[in-house]
């Protein structure tokens, strides 16, 4: 079975809608059609787009990406259907990791890992934050920021070309490995990479850590698992779906924190506006003298 094209692998690094959480002990039905909603790939397509490209070029690129997505979906469906990659819910994965000698491999990028991680897990990212400073890397970062990164806090990620090698250095190929990421897609791509490299016992956590409850895993880090991937202006004001769900659990005190931030921001903007209005006439008066 051929490895996924690198271009597709890089686009798996984007932000996706998390799949529905399965009930403990259940098995997913119709898994991948829900897991890979085509509408949500558009943000990742834009993230890697060349700034200033023509419409025809963009349409050709989107067509190619659509074909790669469909091919990846078929490969992943086959691997799961044939039980070459076994599926666990977050709760099943948590119990399995606690009660057996299976390894838990976290493949998330560093910006998500540093906020929250499973105690005792091994971290080898399949994608990590792009730190390149060449023209191509900078154009992608600018494009990502303009296309919504300022709001969502999403960053440009680069494919870890040494991922399989690093896993091979850490684990033998007959090791039972549970792979997890934030929402489930990157860990599924990682499962395929490792399966093609000869790893025999792979377990994929459906929905990732975002679908887990706090009691499913022993957590370390400052944030709940569900909030590890959010950022930007939307996180600061508490306007993400994850934070709204968290607020429903935490109560009024949690909401007041973000209400206070919003009020403070409005007061600051108002003060700046009034300041500009007063400075303008003052500068004109100084120039007239």
Describe this structure in a few short sentences.
The chain is α/β, with parallel strands linked by helices. The protein has helices at 6-11, 31-35, 42-47, 55-81, 90-99, 110-113, 135-152, 163-170, 185-196, 232-236, 241-250, 252-288; strands spanning 85-88, 103-106, 117-118, 122-123, 127-129, 157-159, 176-180, 201-205, 219-220.
CATH topology tier name:
Oxidized Rhodanese, domain 1
Order of the strands making up the biggest sheet: 1-8-7-2-4
Q: Could you tell me the radius of gyration in angstroms?
A: 22 Å
Would you identify the CATH architecture? 3-Layer(aba) Sandwich
| Percent of residues in helices | 40-55%
Q: Whole-Å distance between the termini? A: 79 Å
Largest sheet: 5 strands, parallel
CATH superfamily placement: Rhodanese-like domain
Helix and strand element order? HHHHEHEHEEEHEHEHEEHHH
Share of β-strand residues: 5-15%
- Average pLDDT confidence is 79
The number of distinct structural domains comes to 1
What is the CATH class designation? Alpha Beta
What is the number of strand segments? 9
Helix/sheet category: alpha/beta
Model regions low in confidence, pLDDT < 50 over at least 5 residues:
1-53
Put simply, the count of helices is 12
Shape: globular
Protein name: Rhodanese domain-containing protein
Organism: Digitaria exilis
InterPro entries: Rhodanese-like_dom (IPR001763), Rhodanese-like_dom_sf (IPR036873), STR11-like (IPR044664)
